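User: I'm curious whether this sequence folds into something compact or stays loose and floppy. Could you predict its structure so I can see for myself?
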Amino acid sequence: MNIIKFVSVALWSMCMLFLSCKKENPSLNETPATVEIFVCNSKGEPLENKTVGLYDESRYTDFQKDRTVKPLAEVITNQKGIAHFVLESRPWFVKGTSAELMFVVQELQDASNYKWWSRGGTVTLGKAHSFKIEVVHQDGAGGDETTEEKPGEDAGENVESPFVIENGILTGIKDPSLTQVVLPAEVKIIASGAFRDSHIEFLVLNEGLETIELQAFSGSQKLASVVFPASLKEIGGHAFEDCVALTEIDLSKTALQEISSDAFRETGLKKVAFPASLKKIGSQAFLGTHLEEVVFSAELQEIDDEAFTGVAELTSVTLSNNIQRIGYRAFSDLNN
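Assistant: Here's the prediction. I'll summarize afterward.
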């Protein structure tokens, strides 16, 4: 009997030691921060094979004095002009959950002549961030040509914004031929129909954006990639309807509580990651899409009428225990 008690006490002690070790290292389970850098020219055209260097605050200060100071990490832009950084809790966030980071594109003309453009700001663990660096060459300029940006500002002081923005509301685009769009940090709301039937193929929505209104991107049939920010709280009705080239979206980092009626109706969606905050999916929100599997958050309470009607390829649905209502024909006309 004493042996059994001894073994029980020993096991209990080991469990407590294991739990205390886990508590001492909470950052080991933190979701990494992601940063997408869009590098383009003054016309907004993506620049492929550009090296983007990452600097922390102190090293960036050294770089400003000496252009040969090496970055802590480097990523080369892809065909869409995107350099994607995934930053784990260590070594980037050892002093807290946020860090001041700068991203630099540099061109070496000769041993003493550098041109460079930078963008950066506060990057937070577990969140998605996006910045734009415009590489602007000034004819006849010699020596160092630098465009250093503060967080939230567009690259290049003399480059006119291609958007119509007033009091944080984006109501339209001046050049409808643009295919690559990165929104500036000042945008809080995208107004109804602002990008309707646009030619956009790649879209980065800025941190700080809270609302996408009715039909904002509907009919943008070439739109194939969208980066959604953590700040997003509302997607209006028909917002992305008929975006047939859009096959995958990640809403998991957003603050959405509801996806409005017809928001992604008849898009090309095959995969969706829903946010933990989501409580309602509106009527016909994903009607006629090509989703193969859906996993709903634990907070989801309502799936409205015909929300997933006609999703022929849908073979797996994972529901939460908090579901209170599944509407009429919410999952009708499935082939499987």
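Summary: Residues 2-24 form the longest helix (23 residues). Helices lie at 2-24, 57-65, 89-92.
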